[in-house]
Amino acid sequence: MTMSTVDLNSDLGEGFGAWTMGDDDAMLELVSSANVACGFHAGDPGTMRRVCDKAVENGVVIGAHVGYRDLAGFGRRALAMDPDDLSDEILYQISALEGFARAAGDRVRYVKPHGALYNTAAVDKDLAWVVVDGIVRFDRHLAILCPPDSEMSRAAAKIGVASYAEAFADRAYTADGALVSRKLRGAVLHDPDTVSARAVAIATTGKVTTEDGQELDIAARSICVHSDTPGAVELARRIRADLTTANVHIESFVDREN
């Protein structure tokens, strides 16, 4: 598959209080969509406000990066929760970010689950329905950003919610298309040549090389580069430059007319 247009997204606003994580301002000059932490796995009101203000200033689309209520574990631990409670917490997080997005002059336009919620809902049908339910209760016109051919994309399709497939430039993949666990060595990629080449391959061929050297089909409309990866800004800058050289236009998957 060849793409002429691709979205470049990053998880932003992941500082908390006096602690910062990543360079949000610099990343917002490079990406087309921002997944903004909503205060449960990371983020706080001041950080949410600043990221939304800067996103609007740079013409970057705002998305709610919702996760488990797990600041200590950065949302990377799966929590056993009552489905109604989790749906409520997803609705709560979107609503909180919406306030800051509107104050900045825009609105939340999509939702991307974070960490353990993202990975589990990708393969767990029941959890996927909970995630989609939380989104729909806020606004069924919001899109969801999720793995291709996942339980989340299937749940969204069944009730008419737009879903967009995402791939990761800086994460290793298993042969079955899952992300390699962060507990394992080599799960996060740091070499600029490798990361950028993967991004270009995803955008132009629809393929990514797995950890065991196989070619995996991955039809993605959006490519993520994590802001907490060491050297993230330079990685994003390199990806953007190499995509442009490959005649790939960088543009958010969100239709701003809706």
CATH class: Alpha Beta
Give the tally of structural domains. Answer: 1
Number of discrete helical segments: 8
**Strand percentage, roughly?**
15-25%
Trace the largest sheet across and list its strands: 1-2-3-4-5-6-9
Summarize the structure.
By secondary structure, this protein is α/β, with parallel strands linked by helices. It has a single domain, classed as Alpha-Beta Barrel (TIM Barrel). The chain has helices spanning 24-27, 45-58, 83-104, 115-121, 125-138, 151-158, 192-205, 232-245, and strands at residues 5-12, 33-37, 61-66, 110-113, 143-146, 163-168, 207-209, 215-217, 222-224, 249-250.
Polypeptide structure, described:
The protein is an alpha/beta fold and 258 residues long. It has a single domain (5-250), classed as Glycoside hydrolase/deacetylase (TIM Barrel, Alpha-Beta Barrel). 38% of the residues lie in helices and 17% in strands. The chain has eight helices and ten strands. It has helices at 24-27, 45-58, 83-104, 115-121, 125-138, 151-158, 192-205, 232-245, and strands spanning 5-12, 33-37, 61-66, 110-113, 143-146, 163-168, 207-209, 215-217, 222-224, 249-250. The strands form two sheets. It has a seven-stranded parallel barrel with strand order 1-2-3-4-5-6-9, surrounded by six helices. The longest helix is centred in the middle third of the chain and has 22 residues, at 83-104. The radius of gyration is 17 Å and the shape is globular. The model has no long low-confidence stretch (mean pLDDT 94).
